[in-house]
Input
Amino acid sequence: MSGAPIFGLTGAALVGLGLFGLLVQAAVLRKILAFNLLGAGVFLLFGVVAQRGGTAGGGADAVPQAMVITGLVVAFAATALAVVVALRMHQITGAATISESDGAEPGGSDAA
Amino acid sequence: MTLDGVLAGVLDGLLAALVLAAAGWTLAAPAAFPATIGFVGFGLLLTLAWVRLGAPDVALTEAAIGTGATGVILLLAVVRLRGGEEEVSAATPGRALVLAAGLLAGAVGLALALAVLALPDPAPGLAAEAAARTAPLGLGNPVAAVLMVFRGLDTLLESVVLVFTVLAVWSMAPDRHWGGRPGPEFPRQDDGPLALLARLLPPVGLVIGIYIAWVGTDAPGGKFQGGTILAAMWVVAWAAGLVQAPSVADRRVRLMLVAGPLVFVLVGLAGFGIADGFLAYPPALAKPLILVIEAAMTLSVAAALALLIAGPPEHPPERVT
Amino acid sequence: MSPATPGGSLLVLALILPVAAMLVAFVLGGRAAERLALAALGLGALLAMLVAAAVYRAGAPLAYAVGGWAPPLGLALRADGVTAAMLLTAALVLLAVALFGRTGHATPPGLAEARAPFAFWCFLLALSAALAAAFLGGDLFNLFVALEMLTFAALALACLEGKPSQFRSELRYLLFALIGSVLYLLGTVLLYGGYGTLDIALLAGRARADAPTLLAAALMTAGLAAKMALFPLHLWLPPAHAGAPPAASAVLSGLVVKASFVLLLRLWFWVMPPLAAAAAAPLLAALGAAAILAGSLVALRQARLKLLVAYSTVAQIGYLFLMFPLALAGDAEVAARAWLGGILQASSHAFAKAAMFLAAGLIAGALGHDRIAALGGAGRAVPVCVVAFGLAGLSLMGIPPSGGFTAKWLLLTSAVATGQWWWALVIVGGGVLTGGYVYRVLAGSLTAPPVTDAPIGDAPLPAAASRGPQLVALALALVSVGLGLLPLASFGLVQVGRLGAAP
Output
């Protein structure tokens, strides 16, 4: 049971790293990578909580572990969706970021 | 502290340092490709961390989905999303903003670290209760019992999310491509390493995938991990041009995609008649019913993952009629 | 706790009906998807009414332990007054949007199936399922899955038209929503670590004001605020909501943000200890006040109709946050009034904003553009839409009689009664600003159409839209006004299950 504190700190650090990447990376794909680091940090914390809550003889708490499995599948779906939208944006407009700097005017609806 | 304990502590520390180093590389790498490779390495190291945390089920899922399937999707995207360096550097925040972001992210990380250390001890949880209620169901793996029985609704909704996502990805296609086959079309490879791999791997992978899905109720494994391996086998054959993706209009594929959640819903509703209510199983039938759901789910997970990797249809449908 | 209250099975049906309908519609495709969606959404509205009636009759929350496993090991579905009210709001708005969509999203004749109609009907059902899961869920992790369902379905609907300008703003929306979900999830892991359960009702008795719990609440609030586009995290919303097709904008602005709102209520009024909630409430309300003023001011300056409506959402969401310090105030009667005011604001805004977006879409369709400076002639081309826009505007401004008026009046009087008069000033100021931007649109629409300076082909003559969709917009606007005609006593439903309320 010695692993919990060190992986707890690792999870917290991953959350910090992922958040930092999401804020400063400009390219969409790099943002999606950072999002996955952030998610991995959160899941690791679930793992730590599961191990802390484990019984002396038996294994770790199965409930948070099951939540991680559900969460991993959902995070994968989110990544797949974000990647496809990013690819479509790139195909159509050539853009690789989501910054507003190019003066595009979203939201207007000319030529209905 | 025993010598074993010290050794384990050193190992865990080393593993944690490697995980963080790989994460740092993923962020700092000069280009998207090495960054994504770094992410895959990160995922593999994380898999080891999950083993160390006593979570073999999660380790398998992390390796299969968090690292494998996610890695493939990201790598395919990196290859297709080139250029835009000028736009990226124009949109990269200045030093002051980076500093502010660093302070914010650092503060969140630090607060989180302190909070995790401040969690109550002994830790509250459901370990004993989940373990004790698993055996009467005829299951050997408490994680499977949580996923299929105690928190079955989570799993049901999550399998529905996969269907949503496939349709969402398909619907990103231009109108004229509707009815076409998802993803790029690869030329058929008859020799070379990929062709060899595509012929040798699937029979083995099929067996392993089905096995991992099958043992999930009693041992580490299950539909998500097994389904991912099945999907991977298809992706290898697809990338080698040996098989074509089915059209998005193909009813059989759609049926395969919804089989898991639909069987789950039907068994759940049957619970009103044969047990205590929605998603309840009669004790004698619990294991067989769960295996039926798991089988359908394995099929659906495999189909969903493979189709998510393929992406939206990229060509108009072939007119055969 | 008991596994299920009488009527609990209704909750399962309300959740499973749209799920099953979506799965079957996905397989059948084409026109069958449309028919199935209309039938399921109609039935869903009926079920929502039954749930509301059952909650009202019982005077206590309905509950259902899924699979017979009571929390903490199992998951519970619960319906109290808030759930019932929001479930009914969502079901009616979704049904209206479906009826509206019959014109624009019919499968073209000669085709077995076309992309946009197929996706529209499936995702309308998906949204219905996700909202039901979000309103009924009794477990914070189950609610995370519901939130993600909601995000994916909403994103797909928003991207339906495949316009080049859309993808950037919708991608920004997706990233904000995903970060919001992860921050929310981060909070849940701390709560599980602290209490060994994520069941809202169980947490309600156990939560302490210690460091992990407070950090969890802060992270979850930040995540949900990002998903709701609370000032200053609002910048993603206007382009994303304005760039979506009208039917999608209506559900995004009217309903999707409300799911996060209900979660925020669960967090601060149920999970967190009252003292901590009382400390956080003024901050939430201050951000809400900033949203009201900033959103309304920016809406006033918009050149495009749909962006104006979207900025108005930023402002109207702000009102929801004013209820926190008021409903947590000591006096029980004032708290009940503020509570009703908040929920009524959430509901009446859903109807009014859906009406406004549908009307704005029809106006833009009829004129061929949505520039506010050139709305002349809209009053003649689509008069019903302009009336719907105006009626919805009354509700947003808070002019009696309307649901928005009752909501804002309740909040305003609660603010005065608790001595927090500054929130009252914000409410009045927001109403005046709202009047300003609604007037701009109405005054522009009622002028004569420009006759001469339109080059051929650039600005086609206003074309009359078909009646059905216009009437749907009008019906939604009438509901948002009509909520204000009901006597206050008839809203007792909303108080059912509120902690601190007399049972």
Remarks:
- Chain B touches chain C through 61 residues (CB under 8 Å).
- Residues 181 and 247 of chain B are 4 Å apart (CA to CA).
- The mean pLDDT of chain B is 92.
